Amino acid sequence: MSDTAAAADARTRLAGARLYLCTDARRRQGDLAEFLDAVLAGGVDVVQLRDKQLEAKEELEHLEVFAEACARHGKLLAVNDRADVAHAAGSDVLHLGQGDLPVPAARAILGDGILIGRSTHSEAEAAAAAVQDGVDYFCTGPCWPTPTKPGRPAPGLGLVRYAASLRTGRPWFAIGGIDLGNLDQVLEAGARRVVVVRAITEADDPGAAAAAFAARLRRAVEQDAAQDTARDAGREGTREAE
Ligand SMILES: Cc1ncc(COP(=O)(O)OP(=O)(O)O)c(N)n1
Ligand SMILES: Cc1ncsc1CCOP(=O)(O)O
Ligand SMILES: [Mg+2]
Fold first, then answer.
1. Which atom of ligand 2 is nearest to the CA of 175?
2. Which member of 49, 126, 159, 240 has the lowest number of beta carbons within 10 Å of its beta carbon?
């Protein structure tokens, strides 16, 4: 497959993605491949290796395990921050924050053969990411303050509501402090895609946690579709009565 065809395929899979996991490569129990197989089988659609302590060489070594697991399950692999590592690892996705490499610079290095995601923390950043060339998806958050990103103020669910109001066709995810106990609040605010770290990596049964997230997200999407169908049928009925 050419780079462009691979990116088009990855973009299609991203459009259907609901659950995005960021994780380091350290495990409390079991080994990394076993953990990745469990969460991917559970319903994680995108896995990002996010570990600020790794040197590039170590990161690449861990990414081999991530890439094999993603390939086994047909899911997307993401690299955080580093365009060189993303390229060397053959990653599907590079995720860039506001302080990371600017998107055009990453595109100049990587070309079009990879998806690029962007973090946003304000309405202006979300509105820009929803239309900016070269961005394939964006994230809004943190929804709640989180020890996983210390010192990052939380714009909260207001930013999720704002992102939903943009009605962009570009995929976007809510992030930060999301767990199974507050997921409904995130869905009520309008998100249909979420990124989580601790809610899966620190779960007693990460595969079961992933499955519970995936099931709740799927239900929300199915409810949307049912509402759309009912609304369309209502419109049709009104037209026939006219
Ligand atoms: C999917 C996803 N969303 C947001 C982030 C955060 O990126 P950034 O703001 O650059 O912070 P760091 O993760 O680099 O500390 C992410 N990594 N992934
Ligand atoms: C990387 C990042 N960027 C904004 S919040 C966050 C971490 C989210 O982690 P958790 O799901 O454990 O709160
Ligand atoms: Mg970053």
1. 5
2. 240
The answer to whether the CB of 186 is under 6 A from ligand 2 is no
Q: Separation of 238 CA from ligand 1 center, angstroms? A: 47
The interface predicted TM-score of the complex, written ipTM, equals 0.99
Length of the chain, in residues: 242
CB 26 within 8 A of CB 58: no
Q: 136 versus 235: which is more confidently predicted?
A: 136
Class of domain 3-241: alpha beta
- CA–CA separation, 183 and 146 (whole Å): 15
Please check if 228 is assigned to a binding site. no
Cα gap 182→216, rounded to integer Å: 12
User: How do the domains of the chain map onto residue ranges?
Assistant: 3-241
53/55 Cα distance (integer angstroms): 7
Rounded CA separation 21/42 (Å)? 12
